[in-house]
Write a structure and sequence with these properties.
423 residues, alpha+beta, Ribosomal Protein S5, domain 2, Alpha-Beta Plaits, 2 domains, eight-stranded mixed sheet, 14 helices, 12 strands, 44% helix
Amino acid sequence: MSYRRCERALDKARAGRSRWSAWVPGRIEVLGKHTDYAGGRSLLCALERGFAVRIAPRRDAMVRVHNVAGQELFEVPLTVDATGSPGHWTDYAATVTRRLARNFHGLRHGADIAFVSDLPSAAGMSSSSALLISVFFAIARSNRLSSRADYRRAITTREQLAAYLGATENGRPFGRLRGDVGVGTLGGNQDQIAITCAEAGRLVRYGWSPVRHESTVALPAGYTFALATSGVAAPKTGTAMARYNHAAAAVQRLTAEWNARTGRHDPMLFDALTSGPDAPSGLHEIAGALADARFTASFLVSRLEQFAEESLEIIPAACDALSRGALAEFGLLVDRSQQLAEEKLANQIPETVALQRQARALGATAASAFGAGFGGSVWALVPLRMARAFLGRWQAAYADSFPQRSAAAEFFLSAAGRSAYQF
């Protein structure tokens, strides 16, 4: 049905008849809270919800994006001057359009792109990254980008493509490909990896310095994810963006100070943390003595401790527990990750804290908030046989605790889905 709605939108726009489709899912950050931009680790999967997209290449260089459900049309030229509206979905479409024009000269063909999404927006499920990737698919295939020598020199694997898409979103350069302003967040590559490199029925573990696949572990047989959005939007704009970027900037400040004091050139905090046996204590000492107008010493210490434990201890142990079928142990490790997010990363709100506690009290094997934080969603791992009943009880408990949020909250089930593809 979604693809038919997209097809009708292209028909109405009198788009070209040579068309194809794409599926671009959202994602669950199982573990890895604010680790990717610091070079740490994440445990990820794709959702079974996402963007259904129909695409028709154009003879001119206009990119026309049809938001079918919202009945919105965004038009932008395929040039380095492409702009959208800050804080709006059009900014993501314009960002990738502008970046491709900057990095790959001579692109001549735009596209008509019609999409329908069943992802909750501003809920920490990567709806904005999924949209950016959808537009990339359209422009890249319309211009046969993968056949160009400059593209093949820069991007040869799915992981490299995901890293480039992450650099597109955050504005950083990628190898010899020049950076741009991005969308304003100091993020990493986690969302893009999950969307483009996930495996159905499995969780993928990635490291980020550089992007590398570390392991894959099956989702336990007979289990699925229950998802709850808090009803508190977590957009990457305004105050939420500032708080997200503050946590990222703290990592950059620590890494820069480490390099200045040691004479090293570690690109990310993970590289510094794992550079030698004395590095953790050395970084802790630096964090405790470092304070300026932006950061208190206590915040820098907390930020370091959360990152180190999540990346070096919790995620490896959680993967090991899953591989052994030790689900109770896995649940306790996830609880610790949630505790660190609340107490040290400080990116949780009362609603996400309550949802996590309620899920565990109702019998979830494991549960955690995920995404950028300061709003957003919670996942719960539950036996499939009790999943729908669990979802109903969870929703009722949340409505009792936060009646003012319940109307905007959404509860649904999803297995670990497959990665994005075109057909």
